[in-house]
Amino acid sequence: MPRKFKPTNVEIDSCPLLLQAPHKTRLIMTKMIVTKPAMGFLLWFLLGSSILLLSLLSRPNPFILLQKKQQQLIVTLGLDKTDNVNQVFENSTDDGATSTCDLFDGRWVREYYGNASYSNYTCRTLPESKNCGKYGKEQDFVNWRWKPDGCDLPRFDGKTFLNIVRGKRMAFVGDSVARNQMESLLCLLSQVETPVSIQKDSEDRFRTWYFRSHDFILTVMWTKFLVAATERTADGAATGVYDLHLDRVDTGWTEKLPWINYLVLSGGHWFSRKLYLHESDALVGCVYCSGENLTDFGPAPAVRRAFRTALAHINGCADCGGLLTLVRTFAPAHFENGAWDGGGKCNRTEPLGDREVGVGGTDWGMRNAQVEELRSAQEEGKDKRFEVLDVTRAMMARADAHPGEHWNNEWMKGYSDCVHWCLPGPIDVWNDMLLEILKENDKQPAEVYRARVRTLRVTTPTGPSTAFGSYPSPSQLKDDMLPVDQNCSLNLPTM
């Protein structure tokens, strides 16, 4: 039975009180007895609280004001824009001075909440060989982002990218790592628009995708060395040894140049094998040919000569005016305790530290050769544009982001892939950098490009024409067309 209080002056009925106990709830009706002095104090307290509450409600929200002031400061300082010229950001310091920031010089910093813009569930074009999560690889390697020293690298914005390349054509030219970057870009862009595969060859080494809403074509063109090469045989079997003609380009990719607006050129991995080097049809040296009566130049000089020939051809292309060529520098492999065919693996679980990443050796030598040849091409170029996409320093640390044993190695059982990169993964940063370059270098409207190639192609009534043939008009493309393994019968020439 509730305890009873004997009233002395004024009796006020109270509201029911819901009292919570650890294991039960009791509803009790009580009566509160207060004296006149206590009643006066209570009234003054309520009056003061009401005035304070009204005052707070009538004032602007201080947190909103703080956010507005911060936004005004950002706009005033220009920090709402990524003003990047030649991959260098301008950054305002505390004293009002302006400093520059190299996108390619920085470090990897952890992001505990994740850094991936897509997943193997949201990217319909993600290839099985790069789907590391599906094959059991722990996904902590995606929780890192590239932080340039002195500034931030903006995250990839698919809408901005597609608006820049609307009505244009982009080609990735190189080995399977070039395709790896193109696959990353496909995943990033597919979060905005699902592309349609409109062409591929029998070996799936040349493939073309179409983003119909933006009239944008993305293609990859396979070449091992950029220059002409012939594989030697023994008793009718391939040997893996090549003769390279360093003064002749591989025409498999160069014949498509007049139809390209953006060219991402790369290479390097195929030079780390036994090669015989030719110039003017004369044998001038080799790579990894110890014991023979030839000069062994090593991979870097051969890479230098191949890129010199490729870039000189671009500069001399009369029908390629306005072409923007980006040289993507060498991205190293990370085999440990053996080569790829000798038990080598890549089982790291986090990026290498600064002391573990040495700037030097063959990998850095190939990168330097590419950058130096690009600079020479820039000086010699007239109506061509050249930029570098320098990923070497960033990727030298990412031994943790290869597929390793976590891929569908149906044809190479027991081998680790420590050359290519998981998707999603740090290779996506290459396309973050690519977008920043495009923002500052895309000064040529689509109409100029179309005028340049008007005499080189024939339009068709079924839809817009491409260098590779005609693709369906928007009315012929259906929303439910699957982008994976979709090979439209478009009478496209062999690539």
Automatic annotation (TrEMBL):
<dbReference type="GO" id="GO:0000139">
    <property type="term" value="C:Golgi membrane"/>
</dbReference>
<keyword id="KW-0333">Golgi apparatus</keyword>
<protein>
    <submittedName>
        <fullName>Protein ALTERED XYLOGLUCAN 4-like</fullName>
    </submittedName>
</protein>
<dbReference type="Pfam" id="PF13839">
    <property type="entry name" value="PC-Esterase"/>
</dbReference>
<feature type="domain" description="Trichome birefringence-like C-terminal">
    <location>
        <begin position="153"/>
        <end position="436"/>
    </location>
</feature>
<keyword id="KW-0472">Membrane</keyword>
<feature type="domain" description="Trichome birefringence-like N-terminal">
    <location>
        <begin position="100"/>
        <end position="152"/>
    </location>
</feature>
<dbReference type="InterPro" id="IPR026057">
    <property type="entry name" value="TBL_C"/>
</dbReference>
<keyword id="KW-1133">Transmembrane helix</keyword>
<dbReference type="Pfam" id="PF14416">
    <property type="entry name" value="PMR5N"/>
</dbReference>
<dbReference type="GO" id="GO:1990538">
    <property type="term" value="F:xylan O-acetyltransferase activity"/>
</dbReference>
<keyword id="KW-0735">Signal-anchor</keyword>
<dbReference type="InterPro" id="IPR025846">
    <property type="entry name" value="TBL_N"/>
</dbReference>
<comment type="similarity">
    <text>Belongs to the PC-esterase family. TBL subfamily.</text>
</comment>
<feature type="transmembrane region" description="Helical">
    <location>
        <begin position="38"/>
        <end position="57"/>
    </location>
</feature>
<keyword id="KW-0812">Transmembrane</keyword>
<dbReference type="InterPro" id="IPR029962">
    <property type="entry name" value="TBL"/>
</dbReference>
